[in-house]
Amino acid sequence: MISPIDDYTIFKRKIKELIGLDLDGYKDEQIKRRIKILMDRVNVNNFLAFYRAIEKDPFLRKDFIDKVTINVSEFFRNLDQFDILKNRVIPQLKDHFKRLNIWSAGCSYGNEPYSVSIILDELGIREFNILATDIDTEALKKAKDGVYKLEELKGVSEERLKKYFTKIDNESYRIVDKIRLSVRFEYLDLLKDKYPQNMHLILCRNVIIYFTQEAKERVFRKLSESLETYGILFLGNTERIFNPQNYKLKPVDLFFYKKEA
To answer: Which of 81, 130, 80 has the alpha carbon at shortest distance from 107?
Structure first.
């Protein structure tokens, strides 16, 4: 006997048709918990009723995308890891590559790629390209604008705040143009879109943890293919690659993996 299709499976299919977001690559229970917060807010008790609400209301649709794409971003998140990036990883990359191609995958509001650009400026490195991508178009708009509330800058030292940010008012700062214009922001869905190639450093931090095991393996393979030999993949502090050799990767520090020849 064939089991009936549950309403969440139908919901996922309809969402993919409506906005192109493929939820099959995400862990069901994590996404369901996030969706149910919105369902309670609009007083619906099943996924198909929620889909109909999303279909009719563009503002609810935006809230839904924000909720499931998990926009959490900080400047210099996990500062000790950014210290390793600055003091060891980037200098080693410069020994191999004249001009660094850097990709921040899942960049959210831009805090991460801007943090990398600040580090490059502090190191006196001028030859680089930084690509930052995300699935959330609203987050990308905020990232391009480069304006942040003071509470969003908690990872920024006083020295860096003075040098790299311009105060707009008592609560808001804009990152200086030298840093803001050094990053190119684009839409990219890690689960379905083509990855950029010839990368020397990829930051994909606190994104993959939300994917299914099958999706993780596919993403790790594609990230590795995106890297040049001796390039570095930088993951978040909740993420591990248990068989890095399967992707031609070798751990070189906590959360850092090198592409092998």
So the answer is: 130
Q: Phi and psi (nearest 5°) for 258? A: -100, 140
Q: Are 134 and 188 in contact (CB under 8 A)?
A: yes
Average confidence (pLDDT) per 10 residues, the chain, 261 residues = 66 85 80 87 90 87 75 83 96 95 95 98 98 91 95 93 95 96 96 96 88 89 98 89 94 94 86
- Runs of H (alpha helix) within the chain: 7-19, 28-41, 47-56, 58-68, 79-84, 90-96, 111-122, 137-145, 158-164, 177-180, 213-226
Per the CB < 8 A criterion, the answer to whether 86 and 122 are in contact is: yes
Residue 151: Cβ within 10 Å count:
7
Domain ranges within the chain, ordered by starting residue: 7-68, 79-259
Report the CATH fold assignment for 79-259.
Rossmann fold (3.40.50)
pTM summary value: 0.80
N residues, the chain: 261
